[in-house]
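re: the backbone from monday

yeah here it is again, tokenized this time
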């Protein structure tokens, strides 16, 4: 099998050297009057949007949720997006949280989202009463802000609304204690493609801030070729600064030229890969197979129990790629809540057909232009 040696990760540029984007102050909102709906009663419950970051992080850390942490406010702040952290208290103890980002776009509407760009980071609560109160508080916040609906992305069913998207699945792989054991589980075709990449002279280097430029060049070019807007370099720099211990960047090189890259994040016992790309001109060299194998092997070595490949539409090319590693499907539930039932229904429709023309146009644009325009667009796209 392919031998894997864990690399020591060093950075030539310290995370503190990256300028930090502080989130803007959120406008005052009053949710104190939010109550459980008729038929529900718990006088000890109260909702607030003013929980301090330390208390918030203590609650979510105990439940192993990296994407709920308060540090993400600095990431949303790169685009000037306002963040509202709703929390439910019972006798002054936190029993539930729901972070919401306010996004406004002519393409995708005026909405509150928990959370943009990620598979699932919605309601985190101890009981059904807290879940219900958070949902009602989110609707009240939408009314105060003039948002048309609330989008809540969940990894499991909560029955928050009849308007729900279920066309996406999270691809989840159980890992082994040793990389050798995982290698033996792989299909022969996958192992052969990894070997092909190695024989082609590709190599993988690992870092953090020191690999950001290579990562961003590959990522932004790949996103242009896919017809999708890319994030700004500053956003990734801010992620690396906010989560220096959790982030790693893997870069696949052909000679000294970066042809593939992925940014991973440690999320409790799970390793996540929110962003990964490779250059289409090098697809024949099986760039992604080598990169993902290196990541998976090091995840085993580091003691992670699971690896999340991210979401896919069933039957798509991405779904096939992730399935071949043995990843299992876990249904995602994206709920849409609104006082306007028709608006919620329309928002819950998959967007491919509505935005297909934009995808075709984007692929034709020069890279310098998509890098400049991409962040302005993606700031409003969940």
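seq for it, each position gets an aa:
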């Amino acid at each position: 099998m392919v031998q894997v040696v864990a690399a020591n990760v060093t950075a030539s540029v310290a995370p503190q050297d990256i300028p930090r984007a502080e989130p803007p102050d959120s406008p005052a909102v009053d949710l104190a009057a939010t109550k459980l709906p008729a038929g529900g009663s718990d006088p000890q419950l109260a909702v607030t949007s003013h929980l301090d970051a330390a208390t918030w992080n203590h609650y979510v850390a105990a439940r192993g949720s990296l994407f709920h942490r308060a540090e993400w406010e600095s990431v949303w702040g790169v685009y000037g997006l306002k963040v509202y952290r709703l929390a439910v208290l019972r006798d002054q103890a936190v029993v539930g949280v729901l972070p919401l980002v306010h996004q406004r776009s002519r393409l995708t509407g005026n909405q509150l989202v928990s959370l943009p760009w990620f598979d699932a980071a919605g309601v985190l609560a101890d009981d059904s009463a807290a879940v219900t109160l958070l949902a009602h508080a989110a609707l009240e916040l939408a009314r105060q802000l003039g948002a048309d609906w609330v989008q809540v992305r969940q990894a499991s069913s909560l029955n928050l609304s009849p308007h729900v998207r279920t066309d996406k699945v999270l691809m989840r792989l159980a890992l082994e204690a040793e990389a050798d054991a995982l290698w033996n589980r792989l299909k022969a075709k996958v192992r052969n493609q990894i070997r092909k990449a190695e024989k082609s002279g590709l190599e993988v280097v690992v870092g953090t801030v020191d690999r950001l430029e290579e990562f961003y060049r590959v990522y932004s070019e790949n996103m242009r070729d896919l017809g999708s807007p890319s994030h700004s370099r500053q956003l990734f720099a801010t992620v690396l600064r906010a989560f220096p211990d959790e982030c790693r960047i893997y870069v696949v090189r052909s000679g000294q030229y970066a042809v593939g890259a992925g940014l991973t994040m440690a999320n409790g016992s799970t390793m996540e890969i929110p962003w990964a790309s490779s250059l289409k001109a090098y697809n024949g060299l099986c760039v992604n197979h080598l990169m993902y194998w290196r990541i998976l092997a090091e995840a085993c070595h580091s003691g992670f129990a699971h690896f999340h490949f991210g979401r896919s539409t069933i039957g798509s090319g991405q779904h096939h790629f992730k399935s071949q590693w043995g990843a299992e499907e876990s249904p995602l539930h994206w709920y849409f809540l609104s006082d306007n039932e028709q608006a919620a229904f329309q928002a819950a429709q998959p967007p491919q057909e509505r935005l297909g023309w934009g995808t075709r146009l984007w692929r034709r644009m020069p890279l310098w232009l998509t890098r400049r325009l991409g962040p302005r667009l993606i700031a409003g796209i969940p």
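The domain at 169-331 is CATH 3.40.630.30 (Aminopeptidase). Confidence is low (pLDDT under 50) at residues 1-26.
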